[in-house]
């Protein structure tokens, strides 16, 4: 409540100001979508009041819900009215001057930076109410909250500020009036408006009226049989229900009858929503009970690892009196959650098998999210793993674990992987060399979440999962196609003297120095010792401040590399212990291995000095 009786002026939150500049300035060819956004908001407002009236009978509306449009072709205005929940002074301040989505600032910076695809990015973000400013020079919002007596008029020209003043409104609800821009007068044309509503809002559950005419079917789409619904109708509904701009990648419309009746109409978007990796990991599926909207914020309906889904779930078997707080303990809802998760996973499996190329697009967008389920949903872990796909050193496209296993070499005991930040860099890692030479495939895991599920899943199909940057690479048992190996062995130098010299020089900086079986082209690499933390996990934890100091690593030397064999010869001579060049070489080898890992030398100035001195000697000799 507030005592304010005068008109007050407020500034938009910085991000809203920036967003409005982009919205108003961008020549959006498809700007009629503003009407879908405003109608969706009106429909949400009716849904919200219907829910509120469940627990507070005094809010029960006397009239049935409807959304009405009003065109004043002389004044060039278009109004969208609803008799829904309405807004009070605090609501207006909170919602129509700010953006309550986390990650907004970062996203707006990204939009500003990408001049070419501003429209596409805005679509991903969903500008909602603010899309009104694509067509309106001024927007008035006259609103009264259900259960309250005061009404308010919010006004803005979208240029940095808005005003709120006390006003009159006979009933609860909201009227948004657009004073159309000169170049947007087409939206004061009846035929145009009828057409837009037909196109975008046919399946809004409430009647949309223009005068006495109802323009839409006003029937919840998900209640109709799937075979009667066209692809276009699904797409429109998806855009309406989720304020999205893309076409869904996949639609899952499923009716379950029996012990626990429920209908779900779920959409997998074709682009990544902007907030996919925000820490809230919010669900975006709306829960209805017998067509009455309950909530879209519960975490008890969809698991977080399916948060990319949009759409609705409607059940006749939940109690209509179920409050949002009670949802958590409702065993029925938990069953629905499991049933839907299984259904989604089985649909994904079908897609993955029948259309692997299309599935690769899905995987690129949402794979990293789905893999969170491997950690969080122990009960469905196998089903989730079944639809997981991985980049591999041996396959061009993506591979499943089962496909990998089917291609394993005779004598290969483990499923090998390398984890890091970037799949392209991983593919070039020196650790892979020996595996490539033997024709042994290595999975390239480049999502952060990989390190976490690898803690839970240590084998598949009886084969252990093994990092190639940790522990010994024992490839001796693996049969090779060629006889090349024997020849290689003959060239390998005895590294014992060199290893001893390097150990003395590097001391605590390394855990051990060993000849390598995994290198063919590079002279050195670093690995984690068996039982130590894998290199990539250590890097991740350090970056997130969860680990101050890493473990010393094992330095592996390639006994077949010319540099190593030369150094080995040199270290076998009597003068080796006083050989400064060898000492520099020991440090340089370690730094070189660090650089190959994408790290920087431990002491860059010492590194530069040693490199300079070694080069000077090389060129002077
Ligand atoms: N007709 C309306 N009646 C009541 N509240 C409304 C109405 N229109 C907008 N609002 C309020 O303003 C908020 C902001 O609306 P906006 O369309 O910008 O975003 P949204 O609908 O919450 O999010 P998104 O568009 O991403 O789904 C809404 O969440 C709602 O609280």
Class computed from helices, strands and strand pairing: alpha+beta
Question: Which whole number gives the mean pLDDT?
Answer: 89
Let me know the number of strands: 23
Q: CATH homologous superfamily of the largest domain - what is it?
A: Histidine kinase-like ATPase, C-terminal domain
Strand content range: 15-25%
| CATH fold call of the largest domain | Heat Shock Protein 90
Sheet with most strands: strand arrangement = 1-6-5-4-7-3-2-8-9
Quick one: biggest sheet? 9 strands, mixed
Anisotropy-based shape: elongated
How much helicity do the residues have? 25-40%
Report the C-alpha radius of gyration, rounded: 32 Å
For this structure, what is the CATH class of the largest domain? Alpha Beta
Which ranges are low-confidence, i.e. pLDDT below 50, for 5 or more consecutive residues?
Answer: none
Count of folded domains? 4
Bound molecule kinds, no repeats:
adenosine-5'-triphosphate
Report, as a whole number of angstroms, the end-to-end distance: 87 Å
Q: Can you tell me the CATH architecture of the largest domain?
A: 2-Layer Sandwich
Total count of helical runs of at least 4 residues: 21
């Amino acid at each position: 409540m507030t005592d304010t009786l005068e008109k007050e002026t407020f500034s938009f939150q910085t991000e809203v100001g920036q967003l409005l500049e982009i919205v108003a300035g961008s020549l959006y060819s498809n700007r009629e979508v503003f009407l879908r956004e405003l109608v969706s908001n009106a429909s949400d407002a009716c849904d919200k009041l219907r829910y509120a009236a469940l627990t507070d009978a005094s809010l029960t509306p006397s009239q049935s819900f409807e959304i009405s449009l009003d065109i004043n072709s002389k004044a060039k205005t278009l109004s969208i009215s609803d008799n829904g929940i309405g807004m009070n002074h605090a609501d207006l301040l909170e919602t129509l001057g700010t953006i309550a989505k986390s990650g907004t600032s970062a996203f707006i910076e990204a939009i500003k930076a990408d001049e070419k695809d501003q429209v596409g990015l805005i679509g991903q973000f969903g500008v909602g109410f603010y899309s009104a400013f694509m067509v309106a020079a001024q927007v008035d919002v006259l609103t009264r909250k259900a259960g309250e007596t005061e009404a308010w008029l919010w006004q803005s020209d979208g240029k940095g500020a808005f005003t709120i003043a006390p006003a009159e409104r006979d009933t609860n609800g909201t009227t948004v009036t657009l004073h159309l821009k000169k170049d947007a007068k087409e939206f004061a044309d009846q035929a145009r408006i009828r057409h837009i509503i037909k196109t975008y809002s046919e399946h809004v559950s409430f009647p949309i009226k223009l005068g006495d005419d109802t323009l839409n079917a006003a029937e919840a789409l998900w209640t109709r049989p799937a075979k009667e619904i066209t692809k276009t109708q699904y797409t429109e509904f998806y855009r309406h229900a989720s304020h999205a701009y893309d076409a869904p990648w996949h639609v899952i419309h499923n009716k379950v009858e029996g012990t626990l009746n429920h209908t779900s109409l779920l959409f997998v978007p074709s682009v990544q929503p902007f907030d996919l990796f925000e820490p809230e990991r919010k669900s975006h599926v709306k829960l209805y009970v017998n067509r009455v909207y309950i909530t879209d914020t519960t975490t008890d309906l969809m698991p977080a690892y399916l948060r990319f889904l949009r759409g609705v779930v409607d059940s006749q078997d939940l109690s209509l009196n179920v409050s949002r707080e009670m949802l958590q303990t409702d065993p029925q809802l938990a069953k629905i959650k499991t049933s839907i998760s299984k259904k989604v996973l089985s649909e994904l499996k079908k897609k993955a098998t029948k259309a692997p190329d299309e599935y690769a697009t899905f995987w690129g967008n949402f794979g990293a999210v789905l893999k969170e389920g491997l950690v969080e949903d122990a009960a469905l872990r196998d089903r989730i793993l079944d639809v997981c796909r991985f980049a591999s050193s041996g396959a061009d496209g993506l591979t499943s674990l089962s496909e990998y296993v089917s291609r394993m070499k005779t004598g290969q005991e483990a499923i090998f992987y390398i984890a890091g930040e970037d799949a392209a860099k991983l593919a070039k890692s020196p650790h892979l060399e020996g595996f490539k030479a033997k024709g042994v495939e290595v999975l390239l895991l480049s999502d952060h979440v990989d390190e976490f599920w690898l803690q839970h899943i240590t084998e598949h199909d009886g084969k252990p999962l093994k990092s190639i940057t940790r522990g010994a690479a024992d490839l001796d048992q693996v049969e090779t196609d060629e006889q090349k190996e024997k020849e290689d062995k003959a060239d390998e130098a005895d590294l014992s003297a060199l290893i001893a010299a390097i150990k003395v020089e590097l001391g605590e900086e390394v855990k051990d120095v060993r000849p390598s079986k995994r290198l063919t082209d590079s002279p050195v690499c670093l690995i984690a010792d068996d039982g130590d933390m894998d290199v990539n996990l250590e890097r991740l934890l350090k970056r997130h401040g969860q680990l101050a100091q890493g473990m010393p690593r094992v330095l592996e030397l390639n006994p077949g590399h010319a540099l190593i064999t030369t150094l080995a010869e040199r270290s076998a001579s009597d003068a080796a212990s006083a050989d400064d060049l060898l000492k520099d070489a020991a440090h340089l080898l370690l730094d070189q291995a660090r650089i190959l890992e994408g790290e920087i030398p431990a002491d860059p100035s010492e590194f530069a000095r040693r490199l300079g001195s070694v080069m000077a000697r090389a060129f002077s000799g």
